[in-house]
Predict the structure.
Amino acid sequence: QVQFVESGGGLVQPGGSLRLSCAASGFSLEYYAVYWVRQAPGKEREGISCITKGDGRPLYTDSVKGRFTISRDSAQNTVYLQMNSLKPEDTGVYYCAPVVGGDCSTLFDVPWEYDYWGQGTQVTVSS
C-alpha cells in the first residue's frame, strides 16, 4: 500500500522546537522531491521547504530560512523538518507532499496545489 503519514506536531512555546516526520511506505522517497507545506488559520496553503530527489538539496522560503532544516533518512524512508526558534506565526497544519521526479521548482507557489494531501500535523506556537 502506497501511503505517507505526517507526525510530530504539538503545542510549543515561542522559541521552542519541534521535529516533524513524513514517513512513507510502498514507495521510496529518494525518487521524489518532498515538500513541506503549511496552512495557517484562515490562509492558503504555502510551501515552506523542499528537498530534491536524489542529491537531497534543501530549499526554504524566507519565512523559515535559518530556523527550519529539512532532511531525508533513506534507511527510514522518512523526511524530517526540524523546526527551531518557533514563532506564533508558524502556527498551522503542516503537510508533506512527495512529488515524483520533482525538482522543488513549485516551492514558492501560492496556493500550493496537490492531489494527494495527507491528514497533516497540527503545530501550535503559543505561550
About this structure: The chain has a mean pLDDT of 95. The longest strand covers residues 92-100. Residues 32 and 101 are 5 Å apart (CA to CA).
